[in-house]
Each structure stands twice: as structure tokens, then as C-alpha cells.
Design a protein that fits this description.
This protein has 461 residues and is an alpha/beta fold. The chain folds into three domains: 143 residues, Methylthiotransferase, N-terminal domain (Rossmann fold), CATH 3.40.50; 225 residues, tm_1862 like domain (pyruvate-formate lyase- activating enzyme), CATH 3.80.30; 56 residues, OB fold (Dihydrolipoamide Acetyltransferase, E2P), CATH 2.40.50.140. 36% of the residues lie in helices and 21% in strands. It has 14 helices and 19 strands. The protein is globular and about 60 Å long. The model has no long low-confidence stretch (mean pLDDT 93).
């Protein structure tokens, strides 16, 4: 594993850990909660662990380095992370040398850090996302000094290049192109835990993509908290076009987008490279009520959002559009929810991810009074889910009888002949194949659809 591109300090800490554990059979185990950016961060955590001499473990109980990479966007994710940490108390008790780390967005919340200090004394350190490059330093400190470390609010502007990832698959890859967010939506904790927007150098991104393609990667997803606000010497649309021009058989995806930054240039680039850029767009709506959108500080209206959807479908007729919706935002009236419901009907999404509002301490919305009872919010959520499933079923039915390109991820279940993969538009496909096409593009004829899956047969069968 090449770590020559890392700073001398990081290389030194990696070497120190490697020397410390030399001769022992050290293993690491990383648990990832939350978004795709966390998945990408975990790949780099695993990469640094491997560079330090650790081998992957099948279970946390077998590891001497345990990392919980956390999400702070919703309360449920935070409670799950704390529950996981609680399970590892006996691991530390059995083997006191075990290093247990809390990483990710929760590690950037002062309240969470206080809780970890007071109630989880067996956690070795907490490391927020903006300081990921200091992971080897804190592992070394935990191993040699046997003291706990909690870093908070430092190095907010740094982007550490050259951290070697250990990816989950060789045919799909996450490529972070920017970090942080400047939008400060009133419900969202992300700007507070991941900092303000910082974009990577375009040349570094291009080099990473070239290397991935040369290594046989078939799908690259460009990541950012607000990916289409990327700015360096190139705009996001220009960066996307430069990558799409690279030789090789691959497809490009990106997420997540903010409607305010969807430009005509971006839509035109997507339409210009249909063989490289996936005809799929995740466009979070959050609410269809202009009043609630203003309370959320989303900076667009329902009309503006619908005009973006119209422009996307005009330029790319087969595009799959997905979204996020928050139900039960403080002050959401029946009329506000009906505006959301009608907007979802008007768009006709391929899939929809809906969430009940979860107050986040430190955000503006957390100070707002909740005026809607839980029973009403539950009914609204059920109506929205039912509508979304009807829309998804209608969209998926249109694929029946069509031949589509699918990137195969492997067997659907161990021991089954069926395989699983995704179409260019992001549809999940379960299909029969005579050979094992894992990691390859395969042509599949669709013969059945549900709201969640497509089913078919590969041409080689």
C-alpha cells in the first residue's frame, strides 16, 4: 500500500504503530453508520489501519482496533451508535489493550463527547471527520500513552490528500470531491459537525478517477454534502465532463445535490454523456410547502423545484429522480403536508426516502415548538409512503420487457443462482445468469417488477 503521498507526520505515526504491533496479530473492525460520505471515510479509516499493520477482522470481538464511524443527522442513528459502543465494554474488559474509537459526525458534537467521556470510559478516543488524517496519531497515542484523547474543533480547513482507502468492492468506488456545507438548513447539523465547504483540487480528483478506471472500477460516485456546489478551478459541471471524457467502460454518479445549485450547464453535461453519466438524480425536496421551505432555509420554492425536474426530464427523458422528504417539521400544518403530498404526486419519483423530523441540538429548528402530535405525523408518513410505493411501482413497471445494462454486485443470497445489481438509472435488479458476472456490466431483460425490485434474465442465460 503506497503512503508516499501522505504528509511526513502521518507517515511517521503509521510507522510508529506498525513498529509497536510488530510481531502481534493485530486486527481492525470498522462499523459504518449513516451516509455515503461516512462510507468513504470508513474506507480511509480501513486504509490507514491496514497501513499500520492491522488485518481485517470478521467480528468486533476478534479485533484489537474497533472503530464506530457515526452519523448525527437523526436521533435514531446516534442512539444506535451509543448502543454499539455499549456492546464493546466487555471486549475492552477482556483485552485491556483493545483500542476503541468513535469517529464521524457524533465525535464533533460537544454534548456527545461529554457523554463519551463520562459514561464510556473504555473508549480510547473520539475523532471528528475533519481530522480523519490524525487517526494514526491517536491510535499510537492510545497504544503507547494509554490515555484518552478527545479532539474537538481543530483543523477545520484541512483536506488531507493521499490517505489510502481499503474499498468494499473493486468495481464500485466513492470519491469525495468536497467536504462540509455552507447552506445551514435550519434542521441540519452537518455544517456544525463537518464544517464549511472545502473543495478538493480537480487534478487530484482526476488522478484518483484515472487510477480507479485503470484498476477496473466500473462505477464511480462523486460525493459531497452539497456536491454540485463544488468549486475549484472548475465548476462541478466542468469536473463531471472532464471525468466523463476519460477512456474506459465505467459510469458516473454523484450525490447529494441541493436544488439551488442545479445549473443548466450541469443538466447539459449529463445529457451530453449518456454512456458515462448515469441518468439518475437525487434531488432532495424536504417539503412541498413554500412556507415550510422558508422555515427550513432551503432557499427555493416549490415552483423552482418543479422547474428543475421539468428541465431534467426534458434533457434526459428516461432519468430516474429520487428525493428526501421530512415529515412533521415544527409547525407543519395539514395544508403544508398536503402541499408536499401534491408535489410528490406531481413529480412522480422513482423512489422516495421519508423521515420524521428529528430535532438536532444546536440547529435553529431545534428551538421551534412542535405543534403536531405524533399520531398525526404517523398518519402523514403512512400516506406519503403509500404514495411513494405506488409511484415506484408505476416507474418500475415501465421496465418490464426492456433490456437494460446492469452492474452486477454478486449473488443475491449465498447459495442462490440469482445475482443482484443496479441499472444505470439505479434500479435494483435480481436476475438469473449462466455465469458469474460479479463486477461486470451485463445485459438483462426485465420480466417482472415490484415497487422495490426488478427481476430478469441475463442475455448469457
Amino acid at each position: 500500500m503506497n503512503i508516499d503521498f501522505l504528509s511526513k507526520d502521518i507517515q511517521e505515526h503509521i510507522a510508529q504503530v506498525r513498529a509497536h504491533i510488530d510481531g502481534s496479530f493485530a486486527r481492525y473492525f470498522v462499523i459504518t453508520l449513516g451516509c455515503q460520505q461516512n462510507e468513504a471515510d470508513s474506507e480511509r479509516i480501513r486504509g490507514m489501519a491496514a497501513a499500520m499493520g492491522y488485518q481485517p477482522a470478521e467480528r468486533a470481538e476478534e479485533a484489537s482496533l474497533i472503530v464506530v464511524n457515526t452519523c448525527a443527522v437523526r436521533e435514531h442513528a446516534e442512539l444506535k451508535a451509543l448502543s454499539l459502543l455499549g456492546r464493546f465494554k466487555h471486549v475492552k474488559a477482556a483485552v485491556p489493550e483493545t483500542v476503541i474509537a468513535l469517529c464521524g459526525c457524533m465525535a464533533a458534537e460537544p454534548g456527545t463527547v461529554r457523554t463519551i467521556k463520562e459514561k464510556f470510559p473504555y473508549v480510547s478516543f473520539a475523532l471528528e471527520p475533519n481530522m480523519l488524517h490524525r487517526f494514526p496519531e491517536l491510535v499510537h497515542r492510545a497504544l503507547t500513552e494509554r490515555r484518552r484523547t478527545f479532539l474537538l474543533g481543530e483543523d477545520m480547513g484541512d483536506i488531507a490528500e493521499g490517505i489510502p482507502p481499503v474499498r468494499s468492492t473493486s468495481h464500485r468506488a466513492w470519491v469525495s470531491i468536497m467536504y462540509g456545507c455552507n447552506n445551514f438548513c435550519s434542521y441540519c447539523i452537518v455544517p456544525y459537525v463537518r464544517g464549511r465547504e472545502r473543495s478538493r483540487d480537480a487534478a487530484r480528483i482526476m488522478d484518483e478517477c484515472r487510477e480507479l478506471i485503470a484498476d477496473g472500477c466500473r462505477e464511480i460516485t462523486l460525493l459531497g454534502q452539497n456536491v454540485n456546489s463544488y468549486r475549484s478551478e472548475l465548476t462541478f459541471a466542468q469536473l463531471l465532463e472532464q471525468i466523463a471524457r476519460l477512456d474506459g467502460e465505467f459510469r458516473l454518479r454523484f450525490m447529494t445535490s441541493h436544488p439551488k445549485d442545479v445549473s443548466e450547464e450541469l443538466i447539459a453535461v449529463m445529457a451530453r454523456y449518456p454512456d458515462k453519466i448515469a441518468p439518475a438524480f437525487h434531488l432532495p425536496l424536504q417539503s412541498g410547502s413554500d412556507r415550510i421551505l422558508k422555515e427550513m432555509n432551503r432557499t427555493y420554492t416549490r415552483e423552482r423545484y418543479l422547474s428543475i425536474v421539468e428541465a431534467l426530464r426534458r434533457a434526459i427523458p428516461d432519468i430516474a429522480i429520487t428525493t428526501d422528504i421530512i415529515v412533521g417539521f415544527p409547525g407543519e400544518s395539514d395544508e403544508d403536508f398536503e402541499d408536499t403530498y401534491r408535489t410528490v404526486e406531481a413529480v412522480g419519483y422513482d423512489s422516495l426516502f421519508s423521515f420524521i423530523y428529528s430535532p438536532r441540538e444546536g440547529t435553529k429548528a431545534a428551538k421551534l415548538a412542535q405543534t403536531t402530535d405524533e399520531a398525526t405525523i404517523k398518519v402523514r408518513m403512512e400516506r406519503l409512503i403509500a404514495l411513494a410505493q405506488r409511484s415506484s411501482y408505476e416507474k418500475n413497471q415501465a421496465y418490464v420487457g426492456r433490456r437494460v445494462r446492469v452492474l452486477c454486485d454478486g449473488p443475491a443470497r449465498e447459495g442462490e443462482e440469482a445475482y443482484i445489481g443496479r441499472t444505470d438509472s439505479g434500479k435494483l435488479v435480481r436476475f438469473q445468469s449462466a455465469g458469474d458476472p460479479t463486477g461486470c456490466f451485463v445485459s438483462v431483460t426485465i420480466d417482472k417488477a415490484t415497487p422495490f425490485d426488478l427481476f430478469g434474465v441475463a442475455d448469457d442465460t
